[in-house]
């Protein structure tokens, strides 16, 4: 066992808190752990063989050991979290958010924030809310922030020097901070604070805030503003009354965790409660390759990863205790700026909510890891790993260009969600792009045109945005697609190209193509999506050519409509037969006047 070769190094380790990093022969970090006593914790691996297949695989691959001593277990916990984030070691538990539903992002990093639809939570000063289910609820909520509070939706750099406001101000959907005389930074800040209360689900507090502002405005005889605040307050109250949320006044602000672990992987489900109501449901999942040894280990990993980009509430309820709970509490408290407690409720409403979260986790596990879903998820997870994607590509959009002999160039887009084709989202496009000489088709220009048209429309609608864009073609088509994405401001979306003959994948960040085994489920999934896009494009192309062929040169002859065109073609067999016909023969079919028009038309075009 390779780890046995490190006995002497392990024996010399200090009995102090710190972080240890196992590495393999290739120099990669394969596992990161924390310890209250480095020597005791690392030495335990020497006798761990046979306890679990995952541990056995780790021990068989270990070739080196690094340690970092810290002053406390809390510092070790924070350092472990940073190393896991930076190095993504394969044997650490990596639970991922369910990215099937969008979030809303309040861009507090800007002087005059906006509300945008986001597909994932990112670290930084911006505030995120969600996920929203169904996805349309995110766009409706974003629209409410414009209608109720006047949050801007433009991309302008706000200086306050604009001479007049735009149409959004005229229709009451923006406070116009771009015009200093209409809206000051302080007034806009009040609107942002109200929007944040709405996104946080704190509708009671928001309604009270709006009521106080309404009374103040009325007392100062600003009656128009008071009426606007009254309408906003009534809308918020109606929204609060319609919300279907689990609620109990005794539970306040807290997060509740439930877990289901099985042979296919693990699902951790989190209910985020604010003001006694469940305002968010977040699902974290990991497949079998990174399955934890115990529920406690999975919960510990979930706590670290979940609160990396979120602020912990004062209480977190768990179905069972986690290792080093005191250190985790202290770390979360430092990040939140207040005391945070990890509790394992045993009875009452608190335990009932933990049980409810656990039942929901079990339902999510059955949905995610049934036989067909498990196969799809395995393929998507393999694809994520092969392409280095930040998340499982739950939504894939694929483009294909179809043209024959330079005529009727068309494009298709097909959509695959969770491994299944979603035909209701298919789209087809007629392409206007031509080669620089204007003679034949330009595949690169066609790809650039269709991608730009597609994602300009998606951006205007606010989504849904794909986790992966698949391009039928090589590096040239992929480059054209990225040019289009950059042009519409979506250059951060991930795209990959698949070459038809070699069946290899091209990405922007790698100089060499990604080669997958011909039996790899990820490659089979990509081929299935690509073939569906090709089928859809060819079907559309054939239809376009059929419609073109149905058109006749006779349509340009004055006085010849559908009935006379059919009569001429029936009588003379073809357009060439009509050209050879004499005046008398034509007149016998369509009359003397139309016969003269046909002869004059062909004489001009000769």
Secondary structure elements and their pairing?
Layout: H1 7-11, E1 18-23, E2 29-35, H2 38-43, H3 53-61, E3 64-69, H4 73-87, E4 96-97, E5 103-106, E6 115-118, E7 127-129, H5 136-149, H6 167-170, H7 185-199, H8 203-219, H9 223-242, E8 254-262, E9 265-274, E10 277-287, H10 295-306, E11 315-317, H11 325-336, E12 341-343, H12 348-368, H13 371-387, E13 395-404, E14 407-417, E15 420-421, E16 427-430, H14 443-461, E17 468-472, H15 475-487, E18 495-498, E19 505-507, H16 521-550, H17 562-572, H18 575-580, H19 583-590, H20 592-605
Parallel strand pairs: 8-11, 11-12, 13-17, 17-18
Antiparallel strand pairs: 1-2, 1-3, 4-10, 5-6, 5-7, 8-9, 9-10, 13-14, 14-15, 14-16, 18-19
Please characterize this protein's 3D structure:
Helices cover 44% and strands 18% of the residues. The chain is an alpha+beta fold. It has five domains: 2-92, 3-Layer(aba) Sandwich (GIY-YIG endonuclease); 103-242, no CATH class; 254-369, Nucleotidyltransferase, domain 5; 381-547, UvrC, RNAse H endonuclease domain (Nucleotidyltransferase, domain 5); 553-605, 5' to 3' exonuclease, C-terminal subdomain (DNA polymerase, domain 1, Orthogonal Bundle), CATH 1.10.150.20. The strands form four sheets. Strands 13, 14, 15, 16, 17, 18 and 19 form a seven-stranded mixed sheet that branches. Strands 4-10-9-8-11-12 form a six-stranded mixed sheet, sandwiched between helices. A three-stranded antiparallel sheet has the order 2-1-3.
């Amino acid at each position: 066992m390779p780890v046995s070769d490190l006995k002497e190094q392990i024996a010399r380790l200090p009995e102090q808190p710190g972080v240890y990093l196992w590495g393999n022969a290739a120099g990669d970090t394969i596992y990161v752990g924390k310890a209250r006593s480095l020597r005791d914790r690392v030495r335990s691996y020497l006798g761990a063989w046979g306890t679990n297949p995952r541990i056995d695989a780790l021990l068989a691959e270990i070739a080196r050991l690094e340690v970092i001593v810290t002053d406390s277990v809390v510092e070790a916990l924070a350092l472990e979290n940073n190393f896991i984030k930076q190095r993504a070691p394969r044997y650490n538990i990596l639970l991922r958010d369910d990215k099937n539903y969008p979030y809303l992002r309040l861009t507090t990093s800007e002087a005059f924030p906006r509300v945008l639809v986001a597909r994932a939570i990112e670290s930084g000063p911006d505030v995120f809310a969600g996920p929203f289910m169904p996805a349309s609820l995110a766009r409706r909520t974003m629209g409410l922030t414009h209608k109720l509070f006047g949050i801007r939706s433009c991309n302008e750099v706000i200086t306050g020097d604009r001479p007049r406001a735009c149409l959004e101000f005229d229709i009451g959907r923006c406070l116009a901070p771009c015009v200093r005389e209409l809206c000051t930074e302080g007034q806009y800040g009040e609107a942002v604070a109200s929007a944040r209360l709405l996104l946080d689900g704190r509708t009671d507090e928001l309604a009270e805030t709006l009521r106080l502002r309404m009374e103040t405005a009325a007392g100062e005889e600003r009656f128009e503003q008071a009426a606007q605040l009254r309408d906003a307050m009534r809308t918020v109250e109606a929204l609060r009354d319609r919300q279907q949320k689990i609620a109990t006044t005794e539970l306040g602000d807290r997060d509740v965790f439930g877990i289901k672990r099985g042979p296919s992987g693990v699902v951790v489900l989190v209910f985020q409660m604010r003001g006694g109501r469940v305002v968010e449901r977040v699902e974290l999942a990991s497949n079998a390759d990174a399955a934890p040894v115990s529920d406690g280990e999975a919960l510990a990993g979930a706590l670290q990863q979940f609160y990396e980009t979120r602020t912990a509430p004062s209480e977190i309820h768990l179905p069972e205790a986690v290792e080093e709970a005191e250190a985790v509490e202290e770390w979360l408290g430092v990040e939140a700026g207040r005391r945070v407690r990890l509790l394992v409720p045993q009875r009452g409403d608190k335990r009932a909510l933990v049980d409810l979260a656990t039942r929901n986790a079990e339902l999510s596990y059955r949905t995610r890891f049934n036989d067909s879903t498990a196969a799809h998820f395995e393929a998507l997870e393999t694809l994520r790993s092969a392409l280095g994607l930040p998340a499982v590509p739950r939504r894939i959009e694929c483009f294909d260009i179809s043209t024959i002999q330079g005529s009727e160039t068309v494009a298709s887009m097909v959509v695959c969600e969770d491994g299944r084709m979603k035909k209701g989202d298919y789209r087809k496009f007629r392409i206007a792009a031509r080669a620089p000489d204007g003679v034949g088709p330009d595949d690169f220009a066609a790809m650039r045109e269709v991608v730009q048209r597609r994602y300009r429309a998606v951006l205007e609608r606010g989504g849904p945005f794909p986790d992966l864009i698949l391009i039928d073609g090589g590096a040239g088509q992929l480059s054209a697609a990225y040019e289009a994405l950059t042009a519409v401001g979506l250059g951060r979306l991930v795209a990959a190209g698949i070459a038809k003959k070699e069946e290899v994948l091209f990405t922007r960040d790698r100089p060499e193509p990604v080669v997958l085994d011909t039996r790899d489920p990820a490659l089979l999934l990509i081929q299935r999506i690509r073939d569906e896009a090709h089928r859809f494009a060819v079907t559309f192309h054939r239809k376009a050519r059929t419609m073109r062929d149905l058109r006749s040169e006779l349509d340009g002859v004055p006085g010849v409509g559908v009935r006379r065109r059919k009569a001429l073609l029936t009588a003379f067999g073809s357009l060439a037969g009509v050209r050879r016909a004499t005046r008398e023969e034509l007149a016998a079919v369509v009359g003397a006047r139309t016969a003269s028009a046909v002869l004059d038309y062909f004489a001009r075009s000769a």
